[in-house]
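We were asked to recover a plausible sequence for a given structure. The inputs and outputs are reproduced exactly as logged, with field labels preserved.

PROBLEM: sequence recovery
POSITIONS: 241
GIVEN STRUCTURE:
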């Protein structure tokens, strides 16, 4: 288990921590979890309990996720690095990326660690992000974005100015990246539920996190499926496990 210990101490003392100098922005595959709760929720945990839950979940989920990764995607680097993204002002958010060496990184923002109400929620979120890497979603998303940028750029290039071509490429990349995003989320929910189950957690209890956030499925351009669809996916996995 590898964490940024300074951030954990910050949670315990409820103080913000500035990011270390020289930290490069990460390339996210998952968009931020909506930060605004919409339904009544269990009481928030105190900072010390939230940190203990986070550390305990990593200890149990990481080896299981790495074993599943080696079994299902042996061609990938399965040495997960779990970090805390302590940049100020972040919403509750978790995402998967890779570093320059191809090592998979799963990052949790401090507000997300504080927002989780039990270990099952943290376990499901961590398993979900690991599933994105195992399934190769980051690479697929980048490829779709590249294809979209090329297609839109070529279309705009017919009589277009360099500025309009650049705008078209950006739009094409955004639309290309969104093309499969909802299915990626459902696939990661399914495999994430399996990882959580193998590690001894209840993914249905973990998926209750969805009940406290706005339903992204209500938005036409959302990259995430409807919350009910995600919960139904987890239910199917649990029923067949």
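RECOVERED SEQUENCE:
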């Amino acid at each position: 288990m590898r964490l940024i210990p300074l951030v954990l101490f910050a949670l315990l003392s409820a103080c913000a921590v500035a990011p270390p100098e020289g930290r490069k922005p990460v390339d996210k595959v998952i968009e931020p979890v909506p930060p605004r709760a919409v339904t009544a929720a269990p009481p928030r945990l105190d900072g010390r309990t939230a940190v203990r839950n986070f550390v305990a979940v990593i200890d149990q989920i990481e080896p299981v996720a790495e074993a599943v990764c080696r079994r299902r995607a042996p061609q990938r680097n399965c040495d997960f690095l779990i970090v805390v993204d302590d940049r100020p002002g972040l919403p509750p958010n978790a995402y998967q990326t890779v570093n320059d060496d191809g090592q998979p990184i799963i990052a949790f923002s401090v507000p997300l660690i504080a927002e989780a109400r039990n270990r099952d929620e943290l376990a499901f979120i961590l398993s979900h992000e690991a599933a994105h890497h195992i399934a190769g979603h980051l690479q697929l998303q980048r490829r779709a974005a590249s294809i979209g940028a090329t297609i839109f750029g070529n279309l705009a290039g017919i009589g277009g100015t360099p500025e309009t071509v650049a705008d078209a490429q950006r739009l094409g990349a955004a639309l290309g990246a969104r093309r499969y995003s909802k299915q990626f989320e459902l696939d990661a929910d399914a495999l994430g539920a399996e990882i959580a189950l193998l590690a001894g957690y209840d993914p249905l209890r973990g998926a209750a996190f969805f009940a406290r956030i706005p339903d992204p499925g209500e938005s036409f351009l959302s990259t995430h499926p409807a919350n009910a669809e995600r919960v139904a996916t987890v239910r199917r996995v649990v029923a067949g496990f």
